[in-house]
Design goal:
The protein is of the alpha/beta class. The protein has helices at residues 15-26, 59-69, 94-115, 145-166, 194-208; strands at residues 6-10, 30-35, 50-53, 76-79, 125-129, 172-177, 214-218. Bound molecules: NADP nicotinamide-adenine-dinucleotide phosphate. Residues 11, 13-17, 36-37, 55-57, 80-83, 103, 129, 131, 177-178, 180-181, 183-186, 190 line the site of NADP nicotinamide-adenine-dinucleotide phosphate.
Length: 226
């Protein structure tokens, strides 16, 4: 049990974000969650966690949340929000491509910088919910090009975040792959259920505390090629 440890999950209305809220709460963490629409039936209000309204692309709102949290109040920050984006690069509107990059890469990166002061020095962990599809080394087929590129960009932003805002404080940065999981995004054919993925992700995040490095790692602890 991690009694008294604190986590903030950004993008927790459903799927893996909501699953992480449940998993960490069950492990004794004190969890706060952000959702875009708190009136949504899927918002995790039944768990007794604090729920904040937040769009990850709204930097002013993230900064206001950071001020409310106070310095060094979080053991774990998870930037989970993400979208699939347009499948077909050549048929997509430029605005849809840009929106995917802002939601999946620049938004979470700016949120991490804005919230970094709320993460505990030395033991704190900042986890970006990336994807194996963001790995250039593992890209053997292409497809979902914009999603892949947005997660590769997220990985690059995470490394820059680590050097500029985490390393000197001893904060650990993670780029996480949850596996292919049955959620609205992952679809019904995905082999993993949410509970299995978030159990592994919680263990990876708990074990990372104090390392002070940045790794690309999946839910079962395996490190991934960049
Ligand atoms: N499922 C998989 O197999 C898989 C594999 C690799 C990586 N991932 C990554 O894991 C993360 C969660 O995916 P999921 O499968 O749980 O997807 P999901 O079921 O589609 O959930 C996506 C979550 O992101 C939130 N979100 C989207 N845009 C947002 C924004 N601008 N601001 C704040 N929140 C926003 C959604 O909130 P709303 O309810 O308001 O839309 C929802 O809570 C994503 O980053 C995804 O890329 C998933």
């Amino acid at each position: 049990m991690a009694d008294g440890k604190t986590a903030l999950i950004v993008g927790a209305s459903r799927g893996l974000g909501l699953g992480l809220v449940r998993e960490l709460s069950g492990r004794g963490w004190l969890v706060a969650a952000t959702v875009r629409d708190p009136s949504s039936a899927k918002a995790p209000t039944d768990l007794g966690v604090g729920v904040e309204q937040l769009d990850v692309t709204d930097l002013r709102a993230v900064e206001a949340l950071s001020a409310r949290l106070g310095r060094g109040s979080l053991d774990l920050l998870v930037l989970n929000a993400g979208v699939s984006g347009p499948r077909d690069l050549m048929a997509a509107e430029p605005e849809a491509i840009a929106a995917t990059f802002i939601t999946n890469a620049a938004g979470p990166a700016r949120a991490a910088h804005a919230l970094a002061g709320a993460v505990k020095p030395r033991t704190g962990v900042v986890a970006f919910m990336s994807s194996l599809m963001g790995s250039i080394g593992d890209n053997n087929s292409g497809g979902s090009d914009t999603y892949r590129a947005s997660k590769a960009a997220m990985n690059s932003y995470a490394r820059s975040f680590h050097h500029r805002a985490a390393e000197a404080e001893g904060i650990t940065t993670l780029s996480l792959h949850p596996g292919w999981v049955r959620t609205d995004m992952g679809g019904e054919r995905a082999p993993l259920d949410v509970d299995t993925s978030v159990r592994g992700l919680a263990e990876v995040c708990e074990a990372a505390s104090g390392r002070g490095d940045h790794r690309f790692i999946q839910y079962d602890g395996r490190e991934l090629p960049w």
